[in-house]
Write the structure tokens for this entry.
Amino acid sequence: MHVLVAVDWHVIWLRIFHPDSAFARALWATVYISIVAQIVGILLGLVAALARMSRFWPFRAISATYVLVFRGTPVLVQIMFFYLAFGLPNEINFGAFTLTGEVAAGILALSINEGAYMREIIRAGIDSIEKGQMEAAKSLGMRTGLAMRRVILPQAARVIVPPLGNEFNNMMKTSSLVSIIGVYELFNDAQQGYSNTFHPEYFVAVAFWYLVLTSAWTLIQASIERRLAVSDRGEELTLRERLVQAWSPLQARGFSWRTPR
């Protein structure tokens, strides 16, 4: 009880319901860093997964080494390495979009680290598909690459999407580590607020916003998974259809929700 009284709720209220423009920039930085790093990580993971399946052993060796190094070392160390070793320019222009050097280094480190985890997720998804699917596609005249795009990967998506969604949830939280190289995102904003006022409540507020981001993504992920969930009859079932499907056998046996008089 004494702890609740000691908390300055006014600070938390302002950070949640009346955020300033600097906080809005920090929130946007967390979102776009997470999205870009996850997309690049998926692409790297796909390339690494295909390299692992290659008949050319150097590709398999490179893929295995990549996973060994970036899954076996802390992501914080990787962020510092890419920031200090590559000496990225102050700003990198992509047309209408500009990235600072520290943001680019953070995205690069997070992407490469994520790619090592996505390789295993994508590999597991591809391995879950029966080998006869590839053979059937080839019998229709498809090359390996075309069969992979049109036959294997669409089916593997049902296995890949759930852990991929969890990885993106982790990415939004892991993105806070780029604050160590000076990226102004949510955690850095809370650090600066605490440094100026010595109010730890800034970290409570930033924890709330991380919870909002991860909860929003959880809802989006659930929607995507529902669209990928195909029933045995080859159609997507809505919640109502699933309830009717579950209720019908019980109704056939004479079960009723009505209580006996």
